[in-house]
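Lay summary. Proteins are chains of building blocks that fold into shapes, and those shapes determine what they do. In this project we predict the shape from the chain. Here is one chain we studied, written as its sequence of building blocks.
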Amino acid sequence: MPHLRIEYSTNIAERFDPARLAEAAAATLLASGVFEPPHSIKARLIPVAHFRVGGGADHGFLHADLALLSGRDTATKAALTGALVACLGQQLQPGALTVQITAEARDMDRDSYSKVLVPGL
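And here is the predicted shape, written in a compact code that computers can read:
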């Protein structure tokens, strides 16, 4: 916990380094001081090849979906999503297409969330 899924349109894939973006986003969440321990943050990038932005404008997008265990207040969620939008924008190189950068924080039900750690060999 938390789970961070970053979807991006494939028409902007050349404008950022995926590994660097995932690392920066995870570091942003860690720097918030909201999450302990650091290895609990799970980030993944998901390319989206088939999409439409608005009325079909020639845009791209980055969207961060942050799933949190329930119980965080609105101000904390807003601070986290604001920090993620800023982080993603800093990772994006200049290019011809307009890019919409968005983030959302949503609750996962604490009572039904399950987790197990399987140790390595």
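What the prediction tells us: The longest strand covers residues 59-69.
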